[in-house]
Amino acid sequence: MPKKPHPYDQVVYLLQGGGALGAYQVGVCEALLESGCEPDWVVGTSIGAINSAIIAGNTPEKRIEKLNQFWNRAATPFPEMPVLEDNYLLRQVQKFWSSQWTLMFGVPGFFKPRILNPWLNFSNHPDQISFYDTRELRHTLEELVDFNLINSKKVRLTLASVCVENGQLVYFDNTKQVIGPEHVMASGALPPGFPAIRIEGKNYWDGGIISNTPLHAVVSDKSKANLKLLCIMVHLFSYDQRTPISLMEILKRKKDMEFSSRFHQILQALCKNHDLNHIIDQLVDKYAKFDSVENIKKLTKNASRKTINITRFHYRDDPSNLWSKDYEFSSQTLKEHRQTGYGDVKRALQDPCWLQAMPDDEGVVLHEF
To answer: What percentage of the chain exceeds 70 in pLDDT?
Structure first.
């Protein structure tokens, strides 16, 4: 294994949801693992939850192999046409029909269409009402993920989901409960395509409905109060500043905005709160001898010496992508996503200033790639 290339106490992988775009995460993770940036904690939602479970549920030497097995299996048998790679209009035609293939036939080892249209399903249970059946995903997870290894807690795993009954964002965490395939499936149960997953009497949907970037789980975690964290975030929905000029571009931009989950506003609020906690910690040290014990106890509840380096890798939208890019699972496109993610990290590692230690008085810093 390569020498640890950073001075941080722990490395966190934070993986967004994004369907087929999750193949980009595989390339990012492969390059990071090759460089020695092994994760201590993996946080994911939706397709990011599946990738996270495969990483946490395998030993280091098997992680990329198992990720590739999942994504090679998920690739639809739509024919590859490498000759079209440089013609984005023809690639759009190819991607359109590939995404239609997914809608009609599903994704191997992941989901398949239900025989009964959900509009004709009069069941009163949300775990039985959807356009697609995801039971194949359970079998795939049981094959590719060692849940005993996950529950040994060698790598922390946190999966974001939302409770159907009360609309609250919840985190399934292997340091607090036993994790099984159902928790991974719940994190990716996006309605009405996929059914809710029932766990201990409650129904759960995709965490991306509330927050596709579960950064709050990392920033608010009190168990890491005095650690230096390197949080590597993989962002799958990005867009340029160009005004959309067609219906297709409008639909694509709308989806990008929805699943970006107001990231910058959330980040600013979390960073401000975290920086205030840092200041509280400094005040506690400075004025402890002058104040009452009770006041100091109140302050220390919010004090934190944790520093977080958030390094975000963006999937850059390809001009040939359509609004259906998150369910375009052709092997050609998935391979392109993986190669792009791998290349982005390799380029970032050529000038690894983002891996340098942060000053102790910094709360949160952000690096963008």
So the answer is: 87
